[in-house]
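SAMPLE LOG
Freezer: B-3
Tube label: C17
Construct: single chain, 70 aa
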Amino acid sequence: DDNIFIKENFVENKEFVSFKNYDDLINKINYYIANEKKRVEIAEDGYQKAIENHTFKARILDILNVINFS
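STRUCTURE (predicted):
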C-alpha cells in the first residue's frame, strides 16, 4: 500500500520500511530478523522523526499556518 503521507514525511528504508507484495514482505521480514542493527536503527530513526515532527502541537501549528495565524 502506497501511503502518500508516509512517503512524503518519512524516508523509506531509513525511517520506515514498506513492501510491494507478499513475497517482498516475507523477504524483508527475514532480512530484518537477521539484521538486528539495521532493524533497530530504522525503528529508532522513524520514532525520532515522529516525536519531533508529528505531534498534536506540530499539527495545530501547521493548521494555523495554513489559515495564516502565526
